[in-house]
Amino acid sequence: MGSKDTLRFISWNVNGIRAVMKKNGFAWLESEEVDFLALQEIKADSEQIPDELFNTRFKYHAINASDAKKGHSGVALWTQIKGVPSTCDDVDILHEGRIIEYLFEGIAFYNVYFPNGQSGEERLRYKLGFYDRFLAHIEARRKEGYSIIFCGDVNTAHREIDIARPKANENTSGFLPEERAWIDKVIAHGYIDTFRYLHPDAKDRYSWWSFRMNARERNVGWRIDYFFVSEDLKDRIVEADILDHIYGSDHAPVCLRLRIS
């Protein structure tokens, strides 16, 4: 890693990479320090993403597009650090293009677009099963000796402080007790919600807003995009924030900076 003493990660649900490209919505990244750029919901195959988009800046990339439904879901990762990518088919069993695992220098890094459960009971059950399979997968990696970082759109707000209208959404997928309980379980297993670690009492900080009813202008949002790290990395957390001044999607990017040692 040369003389660098930190790594900076940015995660963003772009809700369509080609739509963001048309709006020149990645221009802000030119002035950002980024070692890992993780995008979710790219809605594109690799051949639909021009090489020149990020390849002049990053040496390595991995794209996992949906095989189940073209133009849906999909995740992509760009970085300067060499690693081993995979798609975690034991978790993403429907091959919806939801995960990139990237192993490098003792760290297992995950860029994940977790399922949305709002379309009905069957999809909610799939979301909860995906949650459990993912936790089992990262726990197995941790037993192999890896430190864990995972980021992305978890599609669940954890606590009332993480959602503008908790009472109105208590029966809505994304804030159901069983979904929130999974985040409790993740934390109980020794994973740190990095934003809450550094900003335990921060209110009105959200990462997603509906396109309807001027929700973003009114800041009627949800914090559903996260960076979690395993407990052994806790003391290395330098920065964890929501870049809510960045537009171009219904989500704001989130970031994490870690000391390397």
Write a brief caption for the model.
This protein has 261 residues and is α+β, with helices and mostly antiparallel strands. It contains five helices and 14 strands. The N and C termini lie close together (11 Å).
Contiguous low-pLDDT stretches (5 residues minimum) are none
Strand percent estimate? 25-35%
| Sheet of most strands | 6 strands, mixed
CATH class: Alpha Beta
The overall pLDDT average reads: 96
Structural class given helices, strands, pairing?
A: alpha+beta
Total number of strands: 14
Shape: globular
| CATH architecture group name | 4-Layer Sandwich
Count of discrete domains: 1
CATH-wise, what's the superfamily? Answer: Endonuclease/exonuclease/phosphatase
Keywords:
about 260 residues; alpha+beta; Deoxyribonuclease I, Chain A; six-stranded mixed sheet; 5 helices; 14 strands
